[in-house]
Amino acid sequence: MTDAVRAARDAVDAVHGHPTNRRGWPTTAAEASVRAARASAAIDGADPEIPDGGEVDEPVLAGSLRVAEALGPLLPTWQRAPMQALARLHVLAAADMTSDPDELGRPRPVDGVSTRLELLARMLTGETSAPGPVLAAVVHGELLAVRAFGTADGVIARAAARLTMISTGLDPKGLSVPEVACFRTVRRYREAAAGFASGQSDGVRDWVLYCCESIEAGAREANGIADAVAER
User: Fold this and answer.
1) Number of H helices and number of E strands within the chain?
2) Which region holds residue 83: left if phi is over 0, alpha if psi is between -120 and 50, else beta?
3) Are 70 and 76 in contact (CB under 8 A)?
4) What does the alpha-carbon distance between residue 209 and residue 204 come to, in Å, rounded to a whole number?
5) Alpha carbons 5 and 68: distance in angstroms, whole number
6) How many other CB atoms are there within 10 angstroms of residue 36's CB atom?
7) Measured between alpha carbons, how far is 181 from 219 in angstroms, rounded to an integer?
8) Is the pTM of the predicted complex or chain greater than 0.90?
9) Does the CA dihedral 183-73-163-114 come out positive or negative?
10) Which of 84, 144, 153, 175 has its CA 20 to 30 Å from the CA of residue 105?
11) Alpha carbons within 13 A on the beta-carbon side of 225
């Protein structure tokens, strides 16, 4: 586990040291954000292609893109009041997926959901010493498992993991794209997530290792983005 965490950190650190990202990181971060949103939507079965005119009608993809655009402004709220940030993420992600606007931003009224979200919020606001890759994996896995809202939960879980990577300083500029790696290995992604949801120690460990591998692969994707920008 320690080696996997170190490898994930080192890979992301190397991306931040790429010559293009020293000054041109806003451009590469913007590209990474869009790729992450498209991959996240695709994991949930959406067509990830953005039409030539830019008008996105596919509800999952549209929601995922709205979420991606909001992550920067939401970062202070995520650090201070994660539950509030999660509610906002749901409003953005599920706006085109429900006929009842009163459902937006409200966790499911199911036993255990609120308690688990509150525990997660406490962990995010300081009650943990877990390294960034581990904390991002736990946030990601827990939100997938608890299905807090009943709609757009996958998009929200992956966005929350991305926010955690940024807020912990693991990937402060949001350059890595682990979502692409998760999409490319989507069957393993789902199996590992199910293992985490089981609560068994082996399942949790395998999920964290999988997430560390995805962060490494996401860093390779980010290097590709930086190389392409440098060649323009």
Assistant:
1) 11, 0
2) alpha
3) no
4) 9
5) 25
6) 27
7) 10
8) yes
9) negative
10) 175
11) 27
Q: Report the first-to-last Cα separation within the chain, whole angstroms.
A: 39
Tens place of pLDDT per residue across the chain (232 aa): 899 999 999 999 999 999 999 999 999 999 999 999 999 999 999 999 988 777 888 999 999 999 999 999 999 999 999 999 999 999 999 998 887 788 898 998 888 899 999 999 999 988 778 999 999 999 999 999 999 999 999 999 999 999 999 999 999 999 999 999 999 999 999 999 999 999 999 999 999 999 999 999 999 999 999 999 988 7
Distance, CA of 139 to CA of 133 (rounded, Å): 10
Q: Which amino acid is at 224?
A: G
**How far is 109 from 97, CA to CA, in rounded Å?**
18
Domains of the chain by residue range: 2-48+56-231
54 contact partners, CB below 8 Å, separation of at least 6? none
As a CATH number, domain 2-48+56-231 is 1.10.3290.10
